[in-house]
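Email to the structure team, subject: CN166 protein model.

Hi all, the expression group asked for a predicted structure before they design truncation constructs. Nothing fancy, just the tokens so they can compare against earlier work. One-line instruction: predict CN166 protein, return tokens.
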Amino acid sequence: MFKNRLKALDYASWGQVNGNDPEHFKNLVVWLEDQKIRHYAIQDRSDLRDIHNTEWNKTFEKYILDVGCPVTTTNLDKLEWLVGLAVRLDFEDNLEKYQAKKDAAKIAEVPSVKSTNPLDNLDFTSDEFREGVQSIAKQLNIPQHPNHLITLEACSKYVTARLDTAVIKAPHSVVIKGTPFPIMETEMGFDMGDKVLNNTAKALNLLYIQDLRNLQTNINEAIVAVQNITANPKTDTKAGKVGI
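Reply from the structure team: attached below.
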């Protein structure tokens, strides 16, 4: 990742750089400041450029503080942070160029397909669409949410569960009969200190139980499907064995 970022910054020796080598380290710091970061004015970079100076490490520590580096561990960690800073600044300086490349890549990746589905041409935020959703919800006796798309989702779930062809032929298979369980009057083993919050928690608890039941149903269906396959293997009488 370190070398890939240097390659992206067009650092000439990105493939051979070794952050643990003092000379490589110093040269890279100087290059980052001169070419990408440019925190100091040109005339103020002389001490940083003098990589053979015995006081260079002190100059580097001052530079780290001046650019606002929060890293206080090893010099290699500080160098890593400087490279990241250089990448960010280079991106900001060439935002239009990178944006153009990104847009071009998107155009190249996405094939030009003209949809024949009329639903793809609908404006889901238009007043006409919103009024249509409200009309459907009213006919289905679905409570309307301030967000019409959530109302539409509720209508979709109702239609899928109650207006399916198989369900219409045998409504008893989904329409529950009997006395409703008085969930709101039942103690659930907790008290949140507010009746509204307690009722909300009870409703959420019921929804959670329903999700678990649906999950168990799906698991049972998967088990039955596997059993239907394994319980009826193909028999090759010529080979004198059962199975493929």
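The radius of gyration is 34 Å. The longest strand covers residues 235-236. Ping us if the truncation boundaries need rechecking.
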